[in-house]
Specification:
Layout: H1 2-8, E1 9-14, E2 17-22, H2 30-38, H3 40-47, E3 50-53, E4 60-65, E5 68-73, H4 81-85, E6 88-94, E7 100-108, E8 111-115, H5 125-128, E9 134-138, H6 142-151, E10 155-162, E11 167-173, E12 179-185
Length: 201
């Protein structure tokens, strides 16, 4: 075990057990790095280990190198949005401070989404301790989208429901505490039939 810790990371005492922290920088996308530590086949290629991993906070994590093993519990599980929600990264800008100030991602159908950390004054919902905004994204197949998000370990706050305005929608929560509503159109419903009023009508 000592040889492995010297090679891969640092061990620290955590209550009655030891915790192994791994830090590495790779010339790869966040999705590739995420796969490297979450998908058994990728773990085998990157860490030369056999792995059993339950993709959720509180799940079992076991890594084996021959007769040596490291067994523990997944404390946090925060998949990249692109991995969990099927977004495709178009570009990113990383400022001198080292964090991403601006990023652009494709959400399908030629639509794009801008995101990033604007600076020191920025506080996300998790830091504030309250919901601040909800993002509504239309997808082609909401149930398939849910299955992908669940497989990636996304936090699902509400299962898909058929809404009165003709959408089928589910709700997910990202690592910063933002609420995401993913929906597909299941039928056309006139606004007045579900209580909405059309402007200038």
């Amino acid at each position: 075990m000592c040889a492995l810790t010297d090679e891969l990371g640092a061990v620290r005492r955590d209550g009655g057990a030891y915790a192994l922290r791994l830090e590495r920088t790779y010339d790869a996308s966040p999705e590739e790095v995420w796969a490297a530590f979450t998908e058994p086949e990728s773990i085998r290629r990157w860490l030369f280990a056999e792995a059993i991993l339950e993709p959720r906070a509180g799940g079992r994590a076991e890594f084996r190198w021959g007769d040596d093993a490291a067994v523990g519990v997944v404390r946090e599980w925060d998949p990249p949005l692109s991995h969990a929600f099927g977004f495709e990264e178009i570009l990113r800008y990383t400022g001198e401070e080292g964090y991403v100030n601006h990023a652009e991602m494709s959400v399908g159908g030629g639509e794009s989404l801008m995101m990033g950390n604007p600076g020191e004054g920025y506080r996300n919902p998790k830091e504030l301790g309250q919901e601040t905004v909800g993002l509504h994204v239309m997808v082609d197949d909401v149930d398939a989208h849910l299955a992908r998000a669940q497989a990636a370990g996304a936090v699902i706050k509400q299962e898909p429901e058929d809404e009165e305005y003709g959408h089928r929608r589910y709700t997910a929560l990202d690592p910063e505490g933002h609420y995401w509503f993913f929906a597909q159109v299941t039928k056309e419903v006139a606004p007045e039939d579900w209580g909405a009023k059309v402007a200038n009508a």
